[in-house]
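Folds vary. Our protein:
___
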Amino acid sequence: MNIKTRRYLAIFITCTATLALYGAAAWRVEQLRKVPHDHASCYFERCIPHNATLNALR
């Protein structure tokens, strides 16, 4: 394998890895977008309603 072939192989692997990461992130965002929200985020200790004002969060 000469230098030119190695360089093209390295570029191809880099592009493939980048596209795979981008595709996985896009798929994850799409999965999260499909999850129904109950108008609150209860992933932490406190549930925060999405329609609350800043005064209500204090």
Q: What stands out?
A: The first strand starts at residue 40 and ends at 41. The CA atoms of residues 20 and 26 lie 10 Å apart.
